[in-house]
């Protein structure tokens, strides 16, 4: 069943009427609904296009958090073959918030790392809503080191509201683990690609998103703190999250203009959750283009390209 956001109410009403007509036709074969369904479908499509043409940053935040939006596991199923997940940081424990492993993309070996939020109460609890603990980032470092040793490109799929802020995580060195993961991302001799598929929150995202190329899905968000966190700091009121989102420049178009990201992957009208196969195809094209662009670069060239890219951020602003 389709889940609707608050601002999608006009579309929800129209699609609800379509569902009612189809239900009526199923019980009474003599009723002809084709013409009315076609008319309502056209109106729903027009309303959806109109809404998504003028999304505010806060509305994009809601789309990025949509419960039916494709998650890490969906991208693995849609893009990666021979997937072999790897677990544990070899220091403390396994952290299911960050998933990592080896597989093939279009037949080429790749290492894939990313946050998994889960799509049910049980899986969300298992994956801690995509908020990683220190051992998750240490696992990411372990996989990156392995990929670097065997000359395998790294793909990161970023989707987290931030690293887990619990006492245990802090006691086990959360900040240090994030810093080490960021450091490892920067020093890799193999190309790494980061794609923000939903939320890119704070250091929890940066830890695996410091890449040779950083892309965002059209309705994803990427920021130093969540809008709720920003509102709490600025106004001591998390209810002003909408105001924070509208002023934080967290959308893909804003960040592309600032040079923080390198490109935007288009989403279908209505968001990735409405037509996940379209998003998979667009993401597949983006990954293939990245691998082609970096195929002939030496390890030194890969490091120098990444270094220059991050040094240049903020130097060409108007």
UniProtKB/TrEMBL annotation:
Protein's UniProt keywords contain tRNA processing: no
Single GO term (MF): acetyl-CoA carboxylase activity
Enzyme class, first EC level, given as a word: transferase
The UniProt record lists the keyword Ribonucleoprotein: no
Pathway recorded for this protein: Lipid metabolism; malonyl-CoA biosynthesis; malonyl-CoA from acetyl-CoA: step 1/1
The reaction(s) this protein catalyses: N(6)-carboxybiotinyl-L-lysyl-[protein] + acetyl-CoA = N(6)-biotinyl-L-lysyl-[protein] + malonyl-CoA
Keyword list, A-Z: ATP-binding, Cytoplasm, Fatty acid biosynthesis, Fatty acid metabolism, Ligase, Lipid biosynthesis, Lipid metabolism, Nucleotide-binding, Transferase
Signal peptide: none
Cellular localization per UniProt: Cytoplasm
Subcellular location, principal: cytoplasm
EC code: 2.1.3.15
Domain of life, per lineage: Bacteria
InterPro entries: Acetyl_CoA_COase_a_su, ClpP/crotonase-like_dom_sf, COA_CT_C
Domain CoA carboxyltransferase C-terminal stretches: 40-293
Role: Component of the acetyl coenzyme A carboxylase (ACC) complex. First, biotin carboxylase catalyzes the carboxylation of biotin on its carrier protein (BCCP) and then the CO(2) group is transferred by the carboxyltransferase to acetyl-CoA to form malonyl-CoA.
Family: Belongs to the AccA family.
NCBIfam families per record: accA, AccA_sub, PRK05724.1
The protein, known as: Acetyl-coenzyme A carboxylase carboxyl transferase subunit alpha
Species for this entry: Devosia rhodophyticola
Chain's gene name: accA
